[in-house]
Design a protein that fits this description.
This protein has 392 residues and is α+β, with helices and mostly antiparallel strands. It contains 11 helices and 19 strands. The longest helix is centred in the N-terminal third of the chain and has 27 residues. The radius of gyration is 24 Å and the shape is globular.
């Protein structure tokens, strides 16, 4: 009897693998990826060849692989490879635990070190655009502008940004080994992960009753927090407002639309268009249009949802954009959840400003260009934004 155990386990694994191949084909149909034929959902020669190759590789692993195989790891990596085949820099497959962490991060709370990263779609280079105050990353001396080379041996240029982020996040108390570069010099840091609670909206009243609101990222509760800060400063007699979107990498479409609804006049804020030409519009109700001078700070790391915000303000003419040209991410990703809690994200549409401009690959030009001057020790961009508010 004892000798039959391994054979039974092998038969179960073989059955499991066959079920996986079939499930992949079904998933491809459900997600509209049009890969069902290649994965076994069709009857043509290409379909059979691909299906047979998958089974052949599994047979080789089963017969010759030295160590115990991890079927769950095989499943996860096969799914990652499927999505990677889309050649979409923003596409990713998430396990259930990874997707849960992403949802927590969208709510402003997660286990990690407090980095905000951005990946160059052409070079694959990953830049640190922000380190949240009071987080392990900030305490370790990592700075905005540093280049991330690797995380726990995972080369940043070789993987999707979400996969890299998942490697850096994780259980509180664990350590991640980072290799970074600053001014052409490489340095390394071992950073212990902690529970991160990020406040995406910071606000204060400056001199001459000029309000300041910084939005770090458009996550789930940003619109509510922005509204509270905005209304509170109006009650204090705010006479002008600076919204700081510098190095804001974007976030949720609903979040930025709801935030714009706090102060924008009635009208179209942004619309998306998918490959079939189907258009989805997002509009402002115009319940409380802003009546004070508004400036919006942007830079080369202001992307995606930040550009939706900036594009709406510019096209409506309700404010002045100050800073440098934005990142130029004019595409939208959608996440599809699976029954087991895992998820697939992929690019599904372009978005357009109210006047119909697609800014993908171009960015948005500021109304007033002001380059940073770090040597001066002053925030010259913020100073210029305040000056404009005072004059209007």
């Amino acid at each position: 009897m004892a000798g039959k155990g391994p054979d039974m386990r092998e038969r179960r694994k073989d059955f499991w693998w066959g079920a996986l191949v079939g499930a992949l084909a079904v998933m491809a149909v459900l997600l509209g990826v049009r890969l069902s034929s290649a994965l076994g959902g069709g009857t043509g020669p290409e379909s059979r060849a691909t299906r047979n190759k998958i089974h052949a590789v599994n047979a080789l692993i089963r017969s010759h692989y030295l160590n115990e195989r991890d079927d769950q790891a095989l499943s996860d990596e096969m799914l990652r490879g499927l999505v990677a085949g889309l050649d979409d820099d923003y596409a990713a497959y998430y396990t259930a635990s990874e997707y849960e962490e992403i949802q927590n991060a969208n709510n402003g709370e997660y286990d990690g070190i407090g980095l905000v990263m951005q990946k160059n779609g052409d070079t694959g280079e990953v830049t640190i655009v922000d380190c949240y105050e009071g987080t392990p990353a900030r305490e370790a001396g990592i700075e905005a502008g540093d280049i991330l080379v690797s995380a726990d041996g995972l080369q940043a240029v070789d993987v999707e940004l979400d996969v890299l982020a998942a490697a850096i996040k994780g259980s509180e108390g664990n350590t991640v080994h980072l290799v970074l570069m600053r001014d052409g010099e490489t340095y390394e840091k071992d950073v212990e992960k902690a529970r991160i609670e990020v406040h995406m909206v910071e606000s204060r009243m400056m001199e001459d009753q000029i309000g300041y609101i910084r939005i770090s990222q458009f996550t789930a509760h940003v619109a509510e927090d922005f509204s509270k800060a905005y209304e509170s400063m109006l009650e204090e007699g705010m006479e002008g407002l600076v919204v700081d979107l510098r190095s804001n990498p974007g976030g949720l479409m609903d979040s930025v639309v709801d935030t714009l609804n706090v102060f924008m006049p009635e009208g179209l804020l942004v619309y998306t268009e998918d490959r079939a030409g189907e258009r989805t519009e997002y509009s402002s109700k115009g319940e409380s249009p802003i009546e004070i001078p508004l400036t919006v700070l942007v830079n080369g790391n202001s992307a995606s949802a930040s550009e939706i915000f900036a594009g709406a303000v510019k096209d409506f003419g309700v404010g002045t954009l100050v800073g440098t040209v934005t990142f130029g991410k004019g595409i939208v990703q959608k996440t599809y959840t699976m029954a087991d809690g895992s998820a697939v994200k992929m690019t599904t549409a372009y978005y357009y400003t109210p006047k119909g401009e697609c800014i993908h690959g171009k960015g948005i030009q500021p109304d007033v260009e002001v380059k940073p001057d770090p040597d001066s020790g002053e925030d010259v961009q913020l100073q210029r934004a305040v000056e404009i508010c005072r004059k209007e």
